[in-house]
Amino acid sequence: RLERLQRIVSKLQMESGLCEEQLNQADTLLQSDVRLLNAGKPPQKAAEIERDLDKADAMIRLLFNDVQTLKDGRHPQGEQMYRRVYRLHERLVAIRTEYNLRLKSGAPAAAVTVPLGQRPRQELDEATLRYLQDLLAWVEENQRRLGAAEWGVDLPTVESHLGSHRGLHHSIEEF
Question: Which domain holds residue 14?
């Protein structure tokens, strides 16, 4: 059992590194297109950015499944792996948000700060809907994870889970 869980840890480490590279690539392409947009030129890599973000999203979902297996098996690195995958997810959401706000809306960086109530209605289209669906999926995933989480039978395990819960709560408050 421990050997199987250790293989999952190794897999998580390797695949989270690949996911991070995917996010780095998407972010690099996004920053390049934002510079083009700010210079009054059309973005060149939107489809590639979206493809990279979708790949990273799929990878993160699989990583969360592996993390849950570790946590269910009470592996000592389960919490550490959860935090690592959670940071990848936060980065994905941040990059996708910037992509939706700056690139998909076609707005230069300065125009992004216009309050929602003052934006033209057509801007609240597919990009915004996709973003809201991503946020809703994130909330539902975390609700499911919290609902299924075991709190443990000893004080260190309970404190570890409580720390994770507080971290999630803090992320929600920051958002």
Answer: 1-108
Higher pLDDT, 148 or 27: 27
Give 71-136 as a 3 state SS string: HHCCCCCHHHHHHHHHHHHHHHHHHHHHHHHHHHCCCCHHHHHCCHHHCCHHHCCHHHHHHHHHHH
Note the pLDDT tens digit of each residue in 94-147. Answer: 898 888 887 776 554 444 443 444 444 444 466 667 777 777 777 777 777 767
Query: How many independent structural domains does the chain possess?
Result: 2
Looking at the structure, tell me whether residues 5 and 35 fall in a common domain: yes
Backbone Cα Rg of the chain: 19
Q: Which residue has the higher pLDDT, 150 or 106?
A: 150
Alpha-carbon distance 151 to 139, whole Å? 20
Judgement on whether residues 82 and 135 belong to the same structural domain of the protein? no
